[in-house]
Specification:
The protein is mostly helical and about 110 residues long. The protein has one domain (about 5-105). The chain has helices at about 15-20, 25-40, 40-70, 75-105, and strands at about 5-10, 10-15.
Length: about 110
C-alpha cells in the first residue's frame, strides 16, 4: 500500500504513506480517526499490514546493528553511531506499534 484514500460525503483525501509516516502521535491519531470512521475494513487491513511491514523492516535494521555493535571499539565513533541509530530505530518502532494499536483499538 503506497497511498491511502479516504472518501467522505463531501470529498476525499489521498495520503502518500511513506511521506506522512512516521509522524507525531497527535497527527497520526487525527488521520487514523478518519480512517476508522470513513474507510472500509479492507483499507484498514491494508494499512495495518503496512504498519506491520514497517515494524519488520525496522526489526531487520536493529538486527544488523546488533551484529555490528559487539565488533566496534569502546569509545569509537562507530560505536556511538550504532548506539544513536539503535535508539532512533527503537523510537520509530514504538511509534509504528502505537499507530497499529490505535488503528485496531482506537487508543495509543
Amino acid at each position: 500500500m503506497e497511498f491511502l484514500k479516504i472518501n467522505w460525503y463531501t470529498g476525499n483525501m489521498i495520503i502518500h504513506l511513506d511521506t506522512f509516516f512516521p509522524n507525531t502521535i497527535k497527527k497520526a491519531k487525527q488521520l487514523l480517526q478518519l480512517v476508522r470512521q470513513w474507510c472500509d475494513d479492507e483499507t484498514k487491513a491494508d494499512l495495518a499490514e503496512y504498519f506491520k511491514e514497517k515494524i519488520l523492516e525496522i526489526d531487520a535494521e536493529i538486527a544488523k546493528i546488533k551484529q555490528i555493535y559487539p565488533n566496534t571499539k569502546a569509545g569509537s565513533k562507530e560505536k556511538k553511531q550504532c548506539e544513536t541509530e539503535f535508539k532512533r530505530l527503537q523510537r520509530l518502532e514504538n511509534k509504528y506499534v502505537k499507530y497499529l494499536a490505535f488503528l485496531n483499538e482506537g487508543r495509543c
